[in-house]
Amino acid sequence: MSDGSGEPAAEAPPATGRGVRIVVEYCKPCGFESAYLELANAVKEEYPDVEIESRLGGTGAFEIEINGQLVFSKLENGGFPYEKDLIEAIRRASNGEPLEKITKSRPPCVIL
């Protein structure tokens, strides 16, 4: 395929997350705000156009919805999501692919 200049057409730009809306509901008294901020920063770095919102949730909550679909639940999994799994879910959402629930999680705390 050509763009008219005789050169091959440029590949489509990488997905920026436009049209993807994420809601993270978390327990602030549990100290989960830092986990939310860390995750939000990683998401924005990878997908600058993603809309990400936080809501205060119940005790122990760290729930993530993408475009209204629950994709991760700390209440179900007992830990926090791996960033790479959330980034993959956002990629799928931005490409219009079906979302799958994230079932792997990292432990909620680390003992040093």
Q: How would you summarize the topology of this molecule?
A:
Blueprint: E1 21-26, H1 33-46, E2 51-56, E3 62-66, E4 69-73, H2 74-77, H3 83-94
Parallel strand pairs: 1-2
Antiparallel strand pairs: 1-3, 3-4
Family: Belongs to the SelWTH family.
Membrane topology: Lipid-anchor
Protein name: Migration and invasion enhancer 1
Give a written overview of the molecule.
This protein has three helices and four strands. The protein has helices spanning 33-46, 74-77, 83-94; strands at 21-26, 51-56, 62-66, 69-73. It has a four-stranded mixed β-sheet with strand order 2-1-3-4. The chain starts with 20 loop residues before the first strand and ends in an 18-residue tail after the last helix. The relative contact order is 0.19. Mean pLDDT is 87; it is low at 8-12.
Integer-rounded radius of gyration: 17 Å
Strand neighbour order, sheet with most strands: 2-1-3-4
Rounded to the nearest angstrom, the distance between the terminal CA atoms is 56 Å
Order of helices and strands: EHEEEHH
**Count of alpha and pi helical runs:** 3
Q: What is the subunit arrangement here?
A: single chain
Bin the helical content: 25-40%
Protein name: Migration and invasion enhancer 1
Function: Increases cell migration by inducing filopodia formation at the leading edge of migrating cells. Plays a role in regulation of apoptosis, possibly through control of CASP3. May be involved in a redox-related process.
Membrane topology: Lipid-anchor
Subcellular location: Cell membrane; Cytoplasm, Cytosol
